[in-house]
Design brief:
The chain has about 200 residues and is mainly alpha-helical. It is about 70% helix and about 5% strand.
Length: about 200
């Protein structure tokens, strides 16, 4: 469906859902469920946690739909809810110091960086496997040095391919602030990776 038509359709569905039409809200969920799950998976790095965020996001959207004022698209609004839930999740995780080596690549595939070296074939190259494992540890440690907001902006830009203006809207800030956050995150990663070598 073209974006313009989706916008009009969303407005109709939102208005109906605000009047108590559950089927209209369920249709909105169907429109965005895959995108929301994909974003949550990218930002949390865990399928289980992404499912929790997904459920919490739509529950929060349902509870707050009455206050939706059409100042932005439903897409931006639901993404803002997801990013805020993920930020909360990352902050809690940082407090617990549970840094997972699970990352998500550009295609949405998740993998454990430390498991990438398991190769029992007769032609396996142990030196290359060790280098890959060490690089994975270095990247994970570098990402762990970022604040939750820096990590989120970095991942939304580089893993999700979102524009800085969109990231700013989703984080309820300006494009310039998102750009500065991305710059700081990139600088920290460069320093962390340079020191680790």
């Amino acid at each position: 469906m073209p974006q313009g038509e989706r916008r009009v359709d969303d407005v109709t569905l939102i208005r109906a859902a605000q009047q108590g039409d559950r089927a209209a809200f369920e249709e909105l969920v169907r429109h965005y469920d895959q995108a929301v799950l994909r974003l949550a998976l990218h930002l949390t790095g865990s399928e289980h946690e992404a499912q929790d965020v997904y459920q919490d996001a739509f529950l929060k959207a349902y509870r707050n739909l009455g206050s939706f004022r059409f100042e932005c698209s439903f897409y931006t609004w639901i993404y803002r809810i997801v990013t805020n839930l993920c930020l909360d999740h990352l902050r809690k995780k940082q407090v617990r110091k549970e840094d997972s080596p699970v990352i998500t690549d550009a295609d949405g595939e998740t993998f454990n960086l430390l498991d990438q070296v398991a190769d029992d074939r007769s032609g396996a190259d142990p030196e290359r496997d060790l280098m890959r494992r060490e690089l994975g540890k270095m990247i994970n440690a570098a990402l762990g040095k970022l604040t939750p907001r820096e990590r989120m902006v970095f991942e939304m830009k580089h893993y999700q391919g979102l524009k800085l203006r969109t990231i700013g809207e989703m984080l309820n800030t300006t494009e310039e602030t998102a750009k500065n956050t991305l710059f700081r995150a990139t600088q920290k990663l460069r320093v962390a990776l340079a020191v680790a070598r």
